[in-house]
Amino acid sequence: MAKKTPAQRNAEAALDAAKDAAKDAKKLLKSLPKKSAKKLKPLVEEAKDATKVSKKKVADRPKKVAKSATAATERLQEATARLEAEKKAAEKKSAAKKDQKKADRKAAEHKADEKKAAAKKAAPKAKDAASFTAALQPAAKTPTASKPVLSAPTIEPKVTVTTPTSAPAVTPAPAPAPVASSGLSALTLVELRARARAEGRTGYSRLTKAALLDLLAR
User: Fold this and answer.
1) How many Cβ atoms are within 10 Å of 135's Cβ, its own excluded?
2) For every one of its 218 residues, what pLDDT tens digit does the chain have, with 9 covering 90 and above?
3) Which residues of 196-218 are buried (b: 16+ CB within 10 A; e: fewer)?
4) What is the DSSP letter of 177?
5) CA angle 93-94-100, nearest 5°?
6) Which end of the chain has the lower number of beta carbons within 10 A, N or C?
7) Whole-angstrom Cα distance, residue 200 to residue 91?
């Protein structure tokens, strides 16, 4: 078996490096956006093509094989590094947006909690103010309550008008005029007793008519 020269060993190492770079880039393609993946695919295919050389070519032209494989590898690695950096930047930007949204949501929730706490704290004060206002309302209505009292004298003429009409009904009947003793006999027993009562006599309730005539004749 012929011994390999340093140039041949370098060519084989360059081919191995190109294979590894193509393999890593192929994995990266799955996680890249379509636009970025479209840029990287041609470089992956170029690296693969660079590794497709025969052993005879490696033995005959090792320097040319190594140069081609190394160039393809370098271009692929450079593109891969750039796209990986863009991917990380996009992920970082997306994470920052998520964090900002999360912070905004927390700030909104905190603000809402503060409003609720302020409203809860202000509720007793509003209740006290309402109670104080309600307590002042009766005092404010007092002047209006006295207005009906001021209009009461307008009713008095109606009351005073009815008084003279009822006066004759309570006028006492006049005392019976003196009757001559000769006319007493014509009165009944009840009338004689009424006569004795009118004259202020006493002890007449049990007297007979004759006794009453005698009493009233004195």
Assistant:
1) 9
2) 568 899 999 999 999 999 999 999 999 999 999 999 999 999 999 999 999 999 999 999 999 999 999 999 999 999 999 998 998 999 999 999 999 999 999 999 999 999 998 888 887 777 777 776 776 665 444 444 444 444 444 444 444 444 444 444 444 444 444 445 557 888 898 998 998 899 888 888 888 888 888 888 87
3) beeeebeebeebeeeebeebbee
4) P
5) 90
6) N
7) 133
Cα–Cα distance for residue pair 173/165, rounded to 1 Å = 17
The CA angle 186-192-197, to the nearest 5 degrees, is: 155
**Dist. CA 83–CA 42, nearest whole Å:** 14
Task: Report which DSSP code applies to 180.
Answer: -
Residue 33, both tokens: 């956006």
Q: Give the angle subtended at the CA of 96 by the CAs of 93 and 101, to the nearest 5°.
A: 130
Q: Note the pTM of the prediction, 2 decimals.
A: 0.45
